[in-house]
Amino acid sequence: MSYFKLIGLGLALAAGSCAAAPVVDVLDLPSTHSELATRSPLLDLTQAGQRLIAVGQRGHILYSDDHGQRWTQASVPVSSDLNAVQFPTEQQGWAVGHDGVVLHSVDAGATWTRQLDGRQLGRLMQDYYSSRPDAAQWLEEGKRIETEGADKPFLDLWFSDERNGFVVGAFNLIFHTRDGGQSWEPWMDRTDNPSGYHLNAISSDGKHLFIVGEQGLLLRLDDGGERFQALQSPYQGSFFGISAQPGVVLAYGMRGHAYRSSDGGVSWSAVNTGLSSNITASERDDRGHVYLFAQTGQAVVSADQGARFQPLDIGQAVPIYGALSAAEESLLLVGPRGVSQRTPALGKQEQQ
C-alpha cells in the first residue's frame, strides 16, 4: 500500500461556468476514457494470468496483453480514485479505493462492476451489529459512518481465492466476504485495534495473514481464522506496506524503516534498507529478489529474502506507488506519471 493512497490524490469535479451545475457523485459517474490514462497517476498493478492490470486516479483501470507495451482502458462504473488491485484467478479480480468502493471483474479486468461503496458501509454495520448485545460500540459507529457518508477509503485487499477475501482501509475499516463479494461482513470488532488506526496493507506469507497500519500496528489472523490479533511491534512509526513470502515477512514504512520476521511475526529485526524517505512499494520477482521503492524514486534490492539490501539504479527518480516484475528482468513501475518499464542495475558501488 502506497503512502500516497492514504493521503489521496484528490479528485476535483467543479463547474466550468458561472451557472450552477448539478453535482454528480463519483460513485455514479463512470470513469471517462482518456488518451492520457497511461500517463495519469496510477497507484497499483498486478497480473491476471499473462494480462497486466493497473489502477489509479479517477477510476482509471488499464490492461495490457503484450507485457506492458500497449494498454487498453477498461470499462469502470465509478470515477473514484482506486488504490489497490488483486486477481486470485486469471479471470476474477477485485479493486478497492476511495469512497469505500469495491469493484469486481470476471473477465480478466476488461469490465468491472461495483460490489460495495461507502454509502452502504454504515447500514451494513448497523444490520450486522444490531443483533449483538455486546456490540453497542460498533452499532453506534455504523450510525456515524452512515451519517458522514462515503468519505472513507479502502486502501488494500487480499483474496485467497474467488470467494474468500478481505478489504481494509482507514479508521480500522475491514470487511470480509465468503461468497465472492455478493455479501460483506464487517470485522471491525475482530481486530486488536482499539485506537482505530488506519489499516494500510494486508498480505499473506502462505501460512499467516497479516495487516500493518499506523503507529506500528501489526496484526495477524489467529489460527482459527476469526480474529486479527496484535503482534508485539518493534516500531512506533506507521507501516505503509508488507512484503510476504513463505517463511519471511517484511513490514516497511516511514523514513526507510523496515522490519523482518522469519517466525510468523513473533519477533522482528530491523533491516538496513539504505533508504531515508518513506517506502511506498515493494515487489518480489521469480528469482526471489525483494525490491523496495521509496517516495523519492530510489530503489533497493535483496537477494537473501530481505536480510540485506543493495542500492538499485532504475533511471529517472520519480515517486513509485506500485511495481511488478516483468519480462527479461525488467520492472514495470506506476506512479504520478503513469506506467513505465525500467531495466534495473546495481548501483556503481556494489558493482565494483
Quick synopsis:
The chain has 352 residues and is mainly β. The protein has helices spanning 3-7, 118-129, 136-148, 348-351, and strands spanning 42-48, 51-56, 61-64, 72-73, 82-86, 93-97, 102-105, 113-116, 154-159, 165-169, 174-177, 185-186, 199-204, 209-213, 218-221, 228-230, 239-245, 248-253, 258-261, 269-271, 279-284, 290-294, 299-302, 310-313, 322-325, 331-335, 338-342, 345-346.
Biggest β-sheet description: 5 strands, antiparallel
* Oligomeric grouping of the chains: single chain
Low-confidence stretches: 9-20
Shape category = globular
CA radius of gyration is 20 Å
**CATH architectural grouping of the domain at 42-190:** 7 Propeller
Total strand count, please? 28
Q: What's the name of the CATH homologous superfamily of the domain at 42-190?
A: YVTN repeat-like/Quinoprotein amine dehydrogenase
Strand order of the largest sheet: 21-22-23-24-28
What is the helix tally?
4
* CATH topology category name of the domain at 42-190: Methylamine Dehydrogenase, Chain H
Assigned CATH class of the domain at 42-190 = Mainly Beta
Termini separation comes to 34 Å
Structural class: mainly beta
| Mean model confidence by pLDDT | 92
- Share in helix: under 10%
